């Protein structure tokens, strides 16, 4: 979806087999043992809506020729089961309102 530029969609890849479409959101890092990433409210809502047809592919690029991938199928369900946790990040605007 983002081959030429950012599409603004809450996923990066679609895979269609017959009548089934899978959406894949990519996240990547070069930091070993980093077990977190940002996800927007829109992406979380999309995950809730799509269920099993959404997977987050979390890629660790450890060397120029080596990568590890963790596939998180249905991240909304994983969060509901407490296999994934959400964290709160305050925006600059919230910090300004608190002052």
UniProtKB/TrEMBL annotation:
Residues annotated as transmembrane: none
GO cellular component: nucleus
Top-rank lineage group of the source organism: Eukaryota
GO biological process: embryo development ending in seed dormancy; leaf vascular tissue pattern formation; root development
A Pfam family the protein falls into: NOV_C
InterPro entries on file: Auxin_embryo_med, NOV_C
Boundaries of every Protein NO VEIN C-terminal domain copy: 2-62
Protein name: Protein NO VEIN C-terminal domain-containing protein
Lineage of the species this protein comes from: Eukaryota, Viridiplantae, Streptophyta, Embryophyta, Tracheophyta
